[in-house]
Amino acid sequence: MTQWHDRVALVTGASSGIGRATALAFAAAGAQVVAADTNEALGEKLIRDIRERGSEGIFIRTDVAHDHEVAKLVDQTVRHFGRIDIAFNNAGIEGEMAATAECTEQNWDRVIAINLKGVWLCMKHELPLMLKQGKGAIVNCASIAGLVGFQSLPAYVASKHGVVGLTRTAALEYAKTGVRINAVCPGVILTPMVERVITANENMRAQLEAGEPVGRLGKPEEIASAVLWLGSDGASFVTGQAIAVDGGWVAQ
Ligand code: NAI
């Protein structure tokens, strides 16, 4: 069991959904939390919630799609807390729903920039620090859409398959350094992202629930607990994995 006290957890996309639940879980476990997101109002609310529970955290406004912003995030984290023990590179968007031939160039570029380039940029700036520390864990947020196809989400599915490939590659590159790199692949989790999809499409909730073998949608806290384990010393022999936390979806 990892003692998270005096450890520093960086979470991107921390203002909402899975990122928020994971940031709160790290704080509850005793870690100091760095929350990054484009949504400042919800990010500051998260920090108030963390402090109310007696833990420490800071919010750094960051758009993960831009190299200089991610560089600044890691820089400010080091100036404030001195290190990063676990990074959860989670920020992502669903983009627009349209079949491959109808997907616009704008949607493609935006989804790939945030979901895939954003994860690469985070690792690009986190890795040198973790290599200097001689220790660290990175968990990238992929999706079951990184393991199987989903109709009408071509850019999203491509971005998440990309995250899985990038995770495996980086894990191999740094396997001997003390830095472990894995991906979590959530199933359908009831967050504002999924609420947007459900609201926009009639019958979608019933369809999604029917697709989940356990018969219900997941909770953000169920992803958070997998991320905490992947980042912990209990997962010391685990690297290069894309772990589905999905109520059995990809077992079908
Ligand atoms: P959400 O929409 O509730 O939260 C996403 C957060 O990312 C928001 O706070 C948003 O402001 C932030 N964000 C968006 N673009 C950003 C950018 N450029 N830079 C920094 N922050 C940015 O969504 P949810 O569901 O919590 O998703 C989190 C991650 O989990 C995403 O990568 C998503 O693809 C992935 N995921 C979610 C699933 C679900 O069913 N909810 C299933 C599988 C994967």
Which spans of ≥5 residues are poorly predicted at pLDDT below 50?
A: none
Instruction: List SSEs in N-to-C order.
Output: EHEHEHEHEHEHHHE
Across the major sheet, the strand order is 3-2-1-4-5-6-7
Radius of gyration: 17 Å
* Largest sheet properties: 7 strands, parallel
Strand segment tally: 7
Overall mean confidence score, pLDDT: 97
N- to C-terminal distance: 32 Å
The global form is globular
- Secondary-structure content class: alpha/beta
Ligand kinds: 1,4-dihydronicotinamide adenine dinucleotide
State which percent range the strand residues make up.
15-25%
Helix content: 40-55%
**Count, helices:** 8
List the SSEs and their pairings:
Elements: E1 8-12, H1 17-28, E2 32-37, H2 40-52, E3 57-61, H3 67-81, E4 86-89, H4 105-133, E5 136-141, H5 154-173, E6 179-186, H6 192-200, H7 204-211, H8 220-231, E7 242-245
Parallel strand pairs: 1-2, 1-4, 2-3, 4-5, 5-6, 6-7
Helix pairs in contact: 1-8, 3-4, 4-5
The structure holds 1,4-dihydronicotinamide adenine dinucleotide.
1,4-dihydronicotinamide adenine dinucleotide is lined by residues 12-13, 15-19, 37-39, 62-65, 90-93, 114, 118, 141, 143, 186, 188-189, 191-194.
